[in-house]
Amino acid sequence: MKKLFGNFIEHLPKQEEYLTIGFSPSSLPLKERWENNGLSADFIADYFKNFYINKHKKNTEEDEFLIDNFRTTVKYIANELLENAMKFQDLSVPFTAKIQFSLYTDKLIFCVTNGVTTQQAENFGSFIQQVNETDPEELYMNAMRANALKEAQGEESQSGLGLLSMICDYAAELAWKFEDVELDDGSTVTTVTTMVSLDTNN
Amino acid sequence: MEIIEEKYQVIYDPDAATITFKGAMMLNGAKGYEPISKLLNTVAEQRKNNDLMINLQQLKFLNSSGINTLTKFVIFINDIQKLDIKLTFLGNNKIDWHVKLGKNLTRLSPNINVIFE
After folding, report:
1. What count of CB pairs under 8 Å joins A to B?
2. Is A145 in a helix, a strand, or coil?
3. Which residues of A6-18 are buried (b: 16+ CB within 10 A; e: fewer)?
4. With A158 labelled, which of A53, A94, A121, A185 sits at a CA distance of 20 to 30 A?
5. Bigger pLDDT: A155 or B75?
6. H or E element, residue A181
7. Residues A83, B63 contacting (CB under 8 angstroms)
8. For the structural domain made of B2-116, what CATH number should be given?
9. Class in CATH terms, A2-199
C-alpha cells in the first residue's frame, strides 16, 4: 500500500547538504527522549544557520534578526515534526523513525518518517483530508477554539495545531506519504512520512 | 506565584499584575503545560474585573503546545469563564513568532491588547 497526499516529492533532487537523525522507541524514559527533540531541533537549526550565514551575512543588525528568526523557524518546524513522530510512533514495532533535513538553494525540506498503528494512520488520514479540503486558516482558528472548549470539559484534545501553524504562520507546504514497509523479520509496518517545504527566498 | 525551571521561568508579580515568561519552553502536550495553565487560571480568577499583563519579551522559544496553552487561556478568560479581564500581551517585535502569535491572539479575541516594545 502506498498513498500520497499533497505535492509529495518521492525522489528529492540530489542535494548538496543534508542531515539525517534516527531515533528508536528505546528503553529510555519518555521524559529523556522528549529532551532529545529539543536537542535535535537545535542541532538542525544550528546546522542550517551555519550555511545560511555564509550566504547572507552582511553584518547589519537587521541581518542578525533575520538570521535569528529564520533559525527559530527551522527549530520550531524540526521540533514539531520530532514531537509528532514521537507522539505517534507505534512503540510495538522495531522501526527506527528518522528526520531528514535537506538544504537547497531556494528551499529547505524536512522529511520525518515514523511507524503508525492502523488506527493512528486512519486518524491522521482524516486530519490530512480536512487540511486539504478546508481553508487552513479557518481550521487553525477553529482548532484553537475547539481545544479550549474540550479541555474546559476535561477532555483530551489532539488537533494537529503544530502542523497547521507551519502552514498558516510559516507559509510552509506540507505533503504526506503512507506506505507499508517490510521489516527484517518479514512483518509489515505502516509508515507515514511528513514532508515540509519552506521557501528561503521570502 | 512562580514556576522556576532550568530552561524556563513563569513568574507572577501581583503588584505589577504581570505574568512574565522567560527562556525556552518545549513541554510535552497539554499535560506538560498543566502547571503553567494552573498558574494562569489561578491568577485570572484573582484578576477578575481587572487588568492583567502577560510579558513574553524574554521568551525565546515556545512549541505549539505552549502556544496552545496561551490561546486556551485567552478563550478561557473571555469565552468560558467570562472574567472580564483587560488582558495585554507584551511582546518583542524583533521576534517573528511573537508578532505571529499576537496576530492569532487578536483574531481569536479582538478585545485583547497586544503591544510591542
Report:
1. 72
2. helix
3. beeeeeeeeeeee
4. A94
5. B75
6. strand A173-182
7. yes
8. 3.30.750.24
9. alpha beta
